[in-house]
Write a structure and sequence with these properties.
The protein is of the alpha/beta class. 43% of the residues lie in helices and 21% in strands.
């Protein structure tokens, strides 16, 4: 019995390697899968035959460029195997995307993020999920997973938002958004964790392997941070420490979380607004500050306004101090800066460097490489697909006997 269990575990791990390779590189031939996974040709033949029988992957032919010889046989995910819905919750809107099992975007729409109770909020998401499947005439039962992301603090194992800028400490349970007829799993991730996931995957695709560890810093209404590290088995390890609400100054400015002196209380959009207009630091922060208002402050800073310049420098110092603590705990790593706040990087840069320079790890090891990646929405969506499909693939592999029986 033990030997049988061990054999099945190896088969599951090898199947996961094959599906992971197809996710990363797209359609692949038999020999290409073998090269990418390190598995023997006979093993690849057995796995692809089994996955094809179970209707998880499918074959297609590619004619040789010369028009002569036998066509190449390529394997890829079968698009109709199931579907994924991503729900990206921003400060003022919610974006819904329907994706098939091959990762093809089928539909996308955005709705305003309304005010009201958590029950009203969940009801609006539930209605939007129903609309997402009805627009594409898809059975809700064929949706394998609903992947939700938000700023705030997510429960470590349940799809529950523990704290958020809008609802505070009122928990939001996203499993309640699925009504009868839905069998999908629901997962919730911090938005910047998904950014780090996308970035570490992009690095892994580089010819030389890219960076083995990195930090993603998101600047905007909230301040988020994710850490991506490539594991020993090639599987990424992603963390999202509560960076924005880490202490910056004891008994300092009031943060949206209710504490005093957080990094976000000096670097978030509401903090920049508060400093630029010399509003008392104990003033209750605004839940949402339009980007246009921060752009106006940035224009004034570039024109020489002293308080506007101070607001961005102060934000930069808070970010730099926070990053210095990160490097002290986790070691030297490059930092990728993203989010709407990157449009003001010229005003933040000197403060960030000033904050970083105050710690020993930077004085000894030098400044970390800072890279601006402005298109945060694309990173968030990529991160959704990376993490969600890794879960979906694993679920499908574990239920493979059932799928195989259904396909015979």
């Amino acid at each position: 019995m033990l030997a049988k269990s061990s054999t099945e575990l190896v088969r599951q791990q090898n199947s996961a390697l094959v599906l992971s390779a197809l996710r990363r590189y797209g359609r692949m031939a038999h020999t290409e899968i073998s090269d990418a996974t390190g598995l023997a040709s006979a093993t690849i033949s057995a796995i692809t035959a089994e996955l094809e029988r179970a209707r998880i992957i499918e074959k297609s032919e590619q004619q040789a460029a010369t028009g002569r010889g036998r066509p190449r046989v390529l394997f890829s995910q079968r698009r109709g195997c199931g579907y994924l819905i991503t729900v990206i919750i921003s400060s003022d809107s919610i974006q819904y995307s329907l994706v098939d099992y091959a990762g093809t975007l089928l539909d996308r729409f955005t709705e305003p993020r309304g005010e009201g109770s958590t029950a009203t909020f969940i009801a609006s998401i539930s209605a939007a999920l129903e609309r997402a499947v009805s627009r594409s005439r898809i059975d809700p039962g064929s949706v394998l997973l609903v992947s939700v992301s938000s700023k705030g603090l997510a429960h470590p194992s349940e799809p529950v938002l523990i704290w958020s800028p809008v609802f505070g400490s009122q928990p939001v349970d996203f499993t309640k958004a699925l009504h009868e007829g839905w069998s999908a799993r629901v997962i919730l991730n911090n938005e910047t964790l998904l950014v780090a996931s996308a970035l570490i995957e992009r690095e892994a695709r580089k010819p030389a392997g890219g960076e083995p560890v990195l930090a993603a810093l998101s600047l905007g209404h909230s301040i988020g941070l994710g850490i991506g590290r490539r594991g020993s088995a090639g599987t990424p390890e992603i963390l999202a420490p509560n960076f924005g609400h880490m202490l910056h100054i004891p008994n300092g400015g009031l943060c949206r979380c209710g504490a005093k002196g957080c990094v976000e209380a000096y670097a978030g959009f509401y903090a920049i607004l508060r400093t630029a207009f010399e509003v008392p630091m104990d003033t209750i922060p605004a839940k949402f500050v339009p980007l246009a208002e921060i752009d106006k402050i940035a224009t004034r800073a570039r024109q020489g306004n002293r308080m506007a310049q101070l607001a961005f420098r102060q934000a930069g110092v808070a970010l730099g101090n926070g990053l210095s603590r990160l490097l002290s705990l986790h070691g030297h790593m490059p930092v990728f800066i993203t989010g709407p706040g990157t449009r003001h990087q010229d005003l933040l840069q000197s403060g960030i460097e000033e904050g970083l320079a105050q710690t020993q790890v930077v004085r000894l090891g030098g400044m970390p490489e800072l890279t601006i990646v402005p298109d945060e929405p694309s990173l968030v969506f990529e991160g959704h697909l990376n993490l969600a499909f890794s879960i979906v693939d694993q679920d499908i592999i574990l239920s493979r006997p059932h799928l195989q029986a259904a396909g015979e």
